[in-house]
């Protein structure tokens, strides 16, 4: 990034905002910080002494435990919100994961919910009292929505995003907003205002992006349920890198209206909102309840497509019995690192043990799909960023490396300055449609090889060719982007963690591409130690119900295998 | 259009194709043509003597009569196909509505269906034996698909469009392809190859476009069910001008994959395929059976959204009782001609007589919506047309006027040569989303004024500010385009016909706009005599089921009123 002069006004705006943010943190929730050399901070919320035993019990609970206790009143919304708020503030001190903090507003909302339950004996909705964290771009009336752009500081939302209106109807308690990269179009999390979010499992590694604040926060159990957005992997990369569950729904299943965003008006490969949580059930609770709220009556782009209990019962997938999964071992361009291969092997073993069939997935033109997707974004992205940053002159960030020597020596996710014409964009989008048609035919024809009579029920794919890499090193979102262009519903499931004992570096293989060699060179088991290993479960377009059910089957199978291996529950 | 030199090669290609087309017409099906001064040709299929009494009975039958007789075998697929084919060829001789004619192929298909029914006792599918006409852009393997572009002559489809595969699965008999304007982006029907399609009710008037061949063909009962496409009114304008029923479904409900098209890759305001027929039941039979065939397994853009019997039963509309309709009398830019106002008044009277409430619809920013939609198309349209026509140098048609003096003195639907950048297109598309959001909120807030507790159940809108105008005079698709940008499901229903006795010209009013004055000046009851009067029933995005049911309610109400008025069934 170009070194900006200290006298430029944007730095002053940043400083002022950082002070305002600090002032929103209750001083009594400040903890004694560990040494910066302490890389794994996941146990600190439990050991720092800020949370009571009851608050620890609450924050250790997943959505499936929280919701019935909140509904019965055995845990009040105020105490649940307070517990998660405290833990979120701890998480923020450890990983820098929050942007907007508004304790009083959230607690007032929680108190009103408690009052409602007490007075009427009824919950407001299926998410009654559940604290929900939101990626910074999701608007809450009265709360600033800078999205990491200095030029957007001072923009207080004049109304809620549609999703926030829906969440309020459902009884949820929006309670924090979370960190993002400038522009959102980067798979790490760093911006001029709020700085960098680190990975709680190993703070020398990235939390991923663009929903990196959510990933770090939920991994530290500072929120039971968060909402991110995903245009190339932005829900799934942080979920995978931080070891939590994340769902990328298909275009327009979850209402996006009223959010701030990059590249607005880009109507071809759409960003989608999706949940991040500590369990598959958490993802389902969000998805089902939001859809059942009929968001199409509030957002014209939200698809009028009801939640289908039949599809969740897998009526199109043999009711979940004797399924056939196919594993994408590599995309023929980049061989994943040893821990990622181990994650796929574990999943395969678990699924076979659970009575399913597992075959290999044959990739189809992944390289062209990546290039086509990048071309759609690049069509107008540079101009979009230039226009957005121009009011303050803040630099467009061109590297996420913390090493100042790297500045200017590398480029990755930033498109070139020159956009293309609308007609040229149409040609790219036409090719995109053809690739989607080819991939559908490719999937359908697997019916001949599965042995079930059906095409493959779901693909098991790496979430990236690596576990969370060091800050500044995440430059390849290929394994997530592919499913964005194809608009396949995709869930991330954590499988294990990098262990230098198991996950040794292998001798060099014959490289499939330049990026394969770069990727090979990146791996060092010690550097990646303790980073979560995750996989993607990939279903069809608009198969949210089925992917939630299939993801549960995969998750249960992996857990059962692990229980069997260790003899413990 | 620029007068092309006779020596240019494209004219030779046209001549050769016209001869090939003529050769596909069985000579025994040629009729004695009426004088060109015979304007209303709707009775000629019945009087020309080519059809037997049984063939007349068959071709007078709507889809709801044909399907059970075909399924029971009381009418064979071969005799039904033969009857409609003969009548289609008559229609073609009267209005020039066909492009591709393939009698042997269609009859072979019909014979195979008969054999199947005879052998197995079962129908192939719900459309067993039904002849279906297809707009020229819908590909049938082995059939030429020029779409009116000289440069595309000789392009024989190497595979079926997805819709054709689906129709074959359903048991239908694709049997003719129908005429279109060059580029498809014009609301009349004329191209260099196949010439002009006229309106069978008054051949001095246009059939509308771009699915004008379908409109004329179905009005003459030369096909029981046709498929057109609609990006700005191209199903609805010919349906309205020709006095038949047409449905514009929402984006991607009906599979579009594998068709040829203009402006491919324009992903923002999508063209959709929709049915045209002589009854609401015909539209429903098509829509329901195509959706029930799960087209999303063949076309990745087709939405995975099942046919909903509950939504067809109007569970979101008080089960069809005591509905509230709102009439759009004018868009605040163009006051419709007297017969169109009469059509709206008749509909209002009929709905009130049927026990429903009728209020006025308040238009919201229609002018800006029209401009925004045109800007999306114009972004790359001129370059698209230039690239497509360049191989042969055929001129891009810039007027549909049959008067050569008009050439070069007017411009309407053709965008300017200069396209815009992808970034500029994104800004237009962003504004489009905002307008959709505003319109949804505008519709939702009618809940306060309907008296039903619900928002307006459907809008009743003109299909155009006029009935079918003289050739070359249809330059304003505003009343249909609006629903394309908003992506509202919309059905056209015929109400009456222009009668110079009733539909007198009114004194000039205070004009709302320049186009209002131009429209006022256009009206002359004698010129428009006998042109059908139609309305649109407008529902929400992806409300195909509900609009089919609401359209039936409107149609039944209008028919009941007419029965009451005339004392006849």
Automatic annotation (TrEMBL), chains A, B:
The active site is at residues 135, 210, 234. GO terms for molecular function: amidase activity. Pfam families: Amidase. Transmembrane segments: none annotated. It is an enzyme of class 3 (hydrolase). Keywords: Hydrolase. Residues 79-548 form the Amidase domain. SUPFAM superfamilies: Amidase signature (AS) enzymes (SSF75304). It catalyses: a monocarboxylic acid amide + H2O = a monocarboxylate + NH4(+). It comes from the Eukaryota. Its EC number is 3.5.1.4. Substrate binds at residues 184, 210, 231-234. Belongs to the amidase family. This is amidase. It comes from Pleurotus ostreatus (Oyster mushroom). The lineage of its organism: Eukaryota, Fungi, Dikarya, Basidiomycota, Agaricomycotina.
């Amino acid at each position: 990034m170009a070194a900006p002069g200290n006298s430029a006004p944007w730095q002053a705006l940043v400083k002022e905002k950082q002070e305002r943010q600090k002032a929103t943190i209750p001083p009594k929730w400040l903890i004694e910080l560990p040494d910066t050399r302490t890389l794994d901070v996941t146990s600190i919320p439990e050991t720092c002494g800020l949370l009571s035993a009851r608050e620890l019990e609450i924050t250790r609970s997943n959505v499936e435990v929280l919701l019935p206790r909140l509904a019965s009143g055995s845990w009040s919304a105020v105490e649940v919100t307070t517990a998660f708020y405290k833990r979120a503030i701890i998480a923020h001190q450890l990983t820098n994961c929050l942007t907007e903090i508004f304790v009083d507003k959230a607690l007032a909302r929680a108190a009103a919910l408690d009052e409602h339950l007490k007075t009427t004996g009824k919950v407001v909705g299926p998410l009654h009292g559940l604290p929900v964290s939101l990626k910074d771009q999701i608007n809450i009336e009265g709360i600033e929505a800078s999205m990491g752009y200095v030029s957007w500081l001072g923009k207080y939302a004049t109304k809620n995003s549609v999703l926030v209106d829906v969440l309020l109807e459902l009884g949820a308690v929006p309670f924090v907003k979370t960190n993002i990269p400038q522009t959102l179009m980067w798979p790490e999390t760093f911006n001029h205002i709020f700085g960098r979010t680190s990975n709680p499992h190993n703070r020398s590694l990235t939390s991923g992006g663009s929903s990196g604040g959510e990933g770090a926060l939920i991994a530290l159990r500072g929120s039971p349920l968060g909402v991110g957005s995903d245009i190339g992997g932005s829900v799934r990369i942080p979920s995978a890198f931080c070891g939590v569950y994340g769902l990328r729904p298909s275009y327009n299943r979850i209402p996006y209206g009223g959010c701030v965003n990059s590249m607005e008006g880009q109507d071809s490969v759409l960003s989608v909102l999706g949940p991040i949580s500590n369990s598959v059930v958490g993802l389902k609770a969000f998805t089902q309840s939001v859809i059942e709220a009929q968001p199409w009556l509030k957002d014209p782009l939200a698809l009028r497509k009801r939640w289908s209990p039949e599809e969740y019962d897998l009526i199109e997938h043999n009711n979940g019995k004797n399924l056939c999964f196919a594993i994408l071992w590599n995309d023929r361009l980049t061989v994943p690192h040893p821990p990622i291969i181990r994650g796929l092997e574990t999943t395969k073993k678990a699924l076979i043990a659970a009575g399913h069939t597992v075959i290999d997935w044959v990739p189809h033109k992944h390289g062209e799909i990546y290039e086509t997707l990048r071309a759609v974004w690049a069509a107008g992205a540079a101009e979009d960023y230039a226009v957005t940053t121009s009011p303050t002159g803040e630099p467009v960030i061109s590297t996420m490396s913390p090493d100042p020597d790297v500045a200017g020596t590398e480029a990755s996710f930033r498109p070139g300055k020159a956009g293309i014409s609308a007609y040229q964009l149409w040609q790219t989008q036409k090719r995109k449609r053809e690739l989607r048609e080819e991939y559908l035919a490719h999937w359908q024809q697997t019916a001949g090889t599965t042995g079930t009579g059906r095409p493959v029920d779901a693909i098991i794919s790496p979430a990236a060719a690596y576990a969370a890499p060091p800050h500044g090193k995440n430059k390849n979102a290929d394994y997530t982007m592919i499913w964005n262009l194809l608009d396949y519903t995709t869930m991330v499931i954590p499988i294990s963690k990098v262990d230098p004992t198991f996950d040794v570096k292998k001798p060099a293989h014959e490289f499939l591409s330049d990026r394969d060699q770069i990727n090979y060179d990146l791996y060092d088991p010690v550097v990646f130690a303790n980073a979560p290993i995750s996989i993607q479960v990939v279903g069809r377009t608009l198969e949210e119900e089925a992917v939630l059910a299939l993801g549960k089957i995969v998750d249960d199978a992996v857990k059962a295998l692990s229980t069997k291996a260790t003899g413990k529950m």
